Amino acid sequence: MGKDTSLARRHVSTASGPRTSRRQGAAVRRRSEEKDAAKSSDSAVPLYIQVARALQHQISVGEYPIGALLPTEIELAKRHGVSRQTIRQAVQLLRQQRLVSAKKGVGTRVEARHPRQAYYFSLQSLTEIFQFASEATLHVDHEEDLEVRGALASKLASRPGRHWLHICGTRQVAGDPVPICWTEAYVDGRYAKLFRGTKVHQSAIFSAIERHSGEAVTEVQQEINAAVLNRELALRLRAAEGSPALVIVRRYFGAGRRLFEMSINIHPSDRFSYAISLKRDLPDGREP
């Protein structure tokens, strides 16, 4: 009952417009923001990602062919019924995926029909983790209820015999059929009903827990290790057996540093790069 069926354990070896007054401008911006909020309230996926996915689809089917310019910000904002700021965020995401390029005075040019390079992830706060989970949809392959004991209970800082929901599957970025990683998540059994039976997750698991239970994430502990893919994971990820991978383990803590989710994400080395921005605190407010 408490046996760890994790593929991660069994198959990875560690190694501008018309001028307006300020008041009018503020009113326009406020209406745009309210409109965006209203649109996104029905989904856990941020609005700019919804727009980016729509544009990705249009690019992938050739509606915007390679070499063509996307409509202007104003035109896209009208077509999608969102603010220009939302369009800017969506286009920035497409630029990160190297689907488009932007040049001042020229416009936004389509460069590829599908993402052509490794997924690039910059972590500076919990907000970016929300963004990653929204951009990369989790497609569930398997789930089961576990009564954890032994090494797994220790890893989850859980009392032996407690129940956890184990969810496994691949994550994919919209517009790219090749998975960017294999994900395994262990969710405190008290929240299992929020996820049991769901085949596609388009938002972060921990954000759903926050939304439905009021349990807030206060800390995320992260470990990064090198690994080698075994045959089964390589097949699931459409990668070469024995190829290098990046394993990222995240533990999500609530009040009292109580763990309520742990995730293991295994990325083939050619599909993911990771950046962290660190700032040094100096005395007397001096700049480094």
Give a summary of the structure in a few sentences.
With 288 residues, this protein is of the alpha+beta class.
Question: Could you characterize what this model shows?
Answer:
Helices cover 32% and strands 30% of the residues. It has 288 residues and is of the alpha+beta class. It has 2 domains: 22-110, Winged helix-like DNA-binding domain superfamily/Winged helix DNA-binding domain (Arc Repressor Mutant, subunit A, Orthogonal Bundle), CATH 1.10.10.10; 118-275, Chorismate lyase-like (Chorismate lyase, 3-Layer(aba) Sandwich), CATH 3.40.1410. The strands form 3 sheets. It has an 8-stranded antiparallel β-sheet with strand order 1-9-10-11-7-6-5-8, with helices on both faces. α3 (47-60) packs across α5 and α4 packs across α5 (84-96). The longest helix is centred in the N-terminal third of the chain and has 19 residues, at 22-40. Mean pLDDT is 80; it is low at 14-24, 33-44 and 117-122.
Secondary structure blueprint with pairings:
Elements: H1 7-11, E1 12-14, H2 22-40, H3 47-60, H4 73-80, H5 84-96, E2 100-103, E3 107-110, E4 119-123, H6 126-135, E5 136-147, H7 150-155, E6 163-173, E7 181-188, E8 200-201, H8 205-213, E9 219-229, H9 231-237, E10 244-253, E11 259-268, E12 272-276
Helix pairs in contact: 3-5, 4-5
